[in-house]
Amino acid sequence: MADNSLAKTIYLKDYQPPAFLVESLKLHFSLDQERTLVTNTMQLKRAPKVTNNPPLRLDGRQLELLRVTLDGNLLDSGRYSVDPEGLVIENLPTKFTLEIVTAVNPKSNTSLEGLYASGSMLCTQCEAHGFSRITYFLDRPDILTCFTTTIEAPQKKYPVLLSNGNLINKGTLAGDRHFAIWQDPFKKPAYLFALVAGRLTTLEDSFITMSGREVTIHFHVEEQNRDKCNHAITALKKAMRWDEEEYGREYDLDLYQVVAVDDFNFGAMENKGLNIFNSKYVLAQPESATDSDYEAIEGVIAHEYLHNWTGNRITCRDWFQLSLKEGLTVFRDQQYGAQAYPGGGRRIREVRRLRNFQFPEDAGPLAHPVQPKEYVEINNFYTTTVYEKGAEIIHMLQILLGKEGFKKGMQIYFDRHDGQAVTIEDLLNAMSDANDYDLGQFRRWYDQAGTPTLAITQSWHAQTSEFILSIIQNCSPTPGQTEKQPLHLPLAIALLNSDGNEQAATLAGELVPDSPGSRVLEIKDKKAEFRFQGWGCKPVVSLLRGFSAPVQITSNYDKKELAFLVAHDRDPFSRWEAIQKLALNKILNLMKDPEGSETDKLFIETFGILVKKKWSAAEADGASELLILPDEIYIGEQLNEIDPQAISKTRQTLRKTLAQRWQQELEALYNEHQSPAPYEPLPAEMAQRRLKNIALNYLAALGLKGPGLDLCRQQYLKADNLTDRLAALSGLLEIITAEELPELDEFYLRGKNNPLLKDRWFALQAAAQHPNTAQRVEELTRHPDFKRSNPNRVRALLGTFAAANQSAFHQPDGFGYQLLSREITTLDSSNPMVAARLAGSLSRWRRFSSPFSTLMREELEKLAALPQRSRDLREIIDKSLVTSQNDKLKKI
Ligand code: BES
Ligand code: ZN
Question: Mean pLDDT score of the chain, rounded to an integer?
């Protein structure tokens, strides 16, 4: 990974349509772990509009070039030039055939991009630019062609040979070798190419599409995982049906294949007809997957399936359009999830994620628009902004256009652009044309970085019986964008009368069907005022219902009004937001007043009411969210300077106070929601387990003298599922150190032959709320099972430590930062993508108080001074350290 000229910036404004088109592509792979030969035969032609004779530049990296043939004639090396990024040929005819032979070494490819080995398998990852590590090609998403792929390999070692599309031929060859030929019926871009070879067992199922076609489903996994695929297969069929029913979209091929691999940089990849999944998002069994895993598997399976229409049939023109497929598909998988898991907690968890990851990103040095205008390394732009904020933008469109209007827009988008590589503009045009709706201002959501704030002043005028909302929107500067324009957004609200019922407000607005009594206020200007007339007394306003826009809200609520909303608001998000605000207020007061004269009881009493309430199974999901204190990261976001230790301590103290005050009630809650045996990952049972385990978590806060120790030990012993076992262990880890915990050793043994369980063993210790955690993490980096070549293991230990355990990571002596930066240094030379992701945890150093900020910066500077850095890491580090205007960001 040379740290030099490779770091050039790519700009959206420089986009040029391709000068050559690929009419067809034949690939031949002769597989070998250490030397795979790739023969690539393409028919190319100059694009119709090109009038001159431009050179052909093919992308290719880390390839051993063996031979180039043009129209059957071997080219000598003077006819082309090769550099580390590709190959250039000049003076070409308008139409020609190129044959290029290259060799790659999958075994030594630790980046997990291109063709690589995972265990005894060979597999590929091509998005965004992995294909150029397989062969020389026009590796850009607007080049679409039908692939015919022949795979040849030793039969014993690689009995299963897979690629995209349909299997058109297979057979045996001399020398115990065999082959398979796969062909695409539809054109696809190179990033959707996939190849898998290995000793795999195949589970077969089928699906009848709405037009009556039978689709064969194949899940290919290692033998020991055969019994862990049912959940994912069922989820796939549900997602296939849902896209038919919701969007009228049918699967287009006769075969849908999924492969599970252990070493994978991401969650999963939507390769056409051959999805490749991180094992973590396919394999599930009660003993090795938690409720959240079951839910996540369903979500990822749906996500990759739904890409077939939003991503594959209609793809991106260039990588600046990434949110066109990712934001839209996250929105679609969220929509799917909302009906699969209807408890109110799901939307709240989406909001928590957005606030804990996307809002901080948007307020830090790595902030970028949902449609970035420039990048150095595209892998660094698979961000929560492009994904989750991108999904929120689509959600806002759905609210503004209404559900039917939104669907109409989607139909026009599908009809107009099937088979094309398009832009975000094309999607917005389809929406705008379908509804005769001007989205000119709305488009700014894609161009402007930063989280807008709505300052909402409520005023009650008894003389005129008027309730007035005055709204000012604002957005702080972000890197490269000092001036911000006002955004167009839907603010869903309701006005509650003193019985807690929504009462029709006299202002015109649209009804939101799911949320009775809600109205959507359209905000366009920097300042707006809405007057509601005819009220007998001051109503209580429920704001941003359903989290109708990805904004922060400040408002002049009276604390009693917030408690009223906790009790009465029927919108699950707004009710949750009300108690979060009360809790946050309490925490901030405690932080200002650590000596303890803060005696306000309102939050503690409100919490008590919730603990005592008899929650039905259907309500349990939303209820469990109500009982969770604001996340540490979110608390930090509310402060001028983040003192992670103070935040953590205060939050813990409040947790303990609540547990002491409501101990009996929490024990009762714990007992009431015991889940039935045997375990089943059904939404209602998952919700009850969640609620019960939150009660247990509070009781564990009481330490050795509380009931938590016994309850956790009992629960650990009798658990028939991973959710309960882990909840018990994490409680125990809070009370007793890892070294003295026999349960932890027992758990380790359970994971002996199951890498996913072993990941849990690492993650659990990295997440422990214990003063020794950082030390323990350091020890674990020397554990024989800590494999840096496996991204899941790295994320389990270091990702959990640096991104999900504030108090352990932010040691006042900088130990946590030093540990992380050492690991980043090592990882960068093998897997830059993973290294760059981890480095994100240091990027927001300016927001922290002393000594944290200085210590974080010191580690960033060490990383900046490394003689060899990947382009990935370099971009993250350099942007994190940039000074000047960004210093302003510190004081948001
Ligand atoms: N296309 C992506 C996979 C990907 C991610 C490729 C990053 C290249 C770089 C896939 O559709 C995806 O988005 N996967 C997510 C999971 C999904 C449920 C949001 C992932 O892997 O995290
Ligand atoms: Zn995706």
Answer: 96
Using the predicted structure, report yes or no on whether residue 512 has a pLDDT greater than 70.
no
- The Cα 330–Cα 394 span in angstroms is 9
- With bands split at pLDDT 50, 70 and 90, how would you rate the model's confidence at 558? very high
Which atom of ligand 1 is the closest one to the Cα of 270? 11
Bridge-based pairing of strands 255-261 and 274-278 is: parallel
Task: Name the pairing type of β-strands 274-278 and 195-198.
Answer: unpaired
The C-alpha atoms of residue 832 and residue 830 are separated, in whole angstroms, by 6
- Give the per-residue pLDDT at 6: 54
Q: 422 C-alpha vs ligand 1 centroid, how far in Å? A: 19
For residue 301, give the ligand nearest its CA. 1
Q: How many CB atoms lie within 10 A of CB 240?
A: 24
Helices 390-417, 424-435: crossing angle, 10 deg rounding: 80
pLDDT over 60 (residue 731):
yes
Give backbone dihedrals phi and psi of 836, rounded to 5 degrees, phi first: -65, -40
Per the listing, tokens 């293991």 go with 793
Q: Nearest C-alpha to atom 7 of ligand 1 is from which residue?
A: 382
Helices (H), 593-718: 602-612, 617-626, 632-637, 644-661, 663-672, 683-700, 708-718
Mutate to test the pocket of ligand 1, among 269, 329, 392 (most ligand atoms within 8 A of CB): 269
Catalytic-residue membership of 466: no
- C-alpha dihedral sign at 349, 354, 357, 360: negative
The average pLDDT across 130-149 equals 98
- Say which of 152, 304, 326, 377 is annotated catalytic: 304
Q: What's the CA-to-centroid distance between 152 and ligand 1, angstroms? A: 29
Per DSSP, the three-state class of 174 is coil
Cα distance between residue 410 and residue 547, in whole Å: 22
Q: 622 CA distance to ligand 1 centroid (A)?
A: 28
pLDDT tens digit sequence for 787-824: 999 999 999 999 999 999 999 999 999 999 999 999 99
Instruction: Ligand 1: list residues with CB < 6 Å.
Output: 127-128, 266-270, 299-300, 303-304, 307, 326, 330, 382, 387
pLDDT, tens only, 674-721: 988 999 999 999 999 999 999 999 999 999 999 999 999 999 999 999
Residue with CA closest to ligand 1 atom 2: 269
C-alpha 439/C-alpha 744 separation (Å) is 55
Ligand 1, atom 8, residue with closest C-alpha: 127
419 Cα to the center of ligand 2, angstroms: 18
pLDDT value for 502: 82
**For residue range 395-407, what is the model confidence (pLDDT) as tens digits?**
999 999 999 999 9
Left, alpha or beta for 772 (phi > 0: left; psi -120 to 50: alpha)? alpha
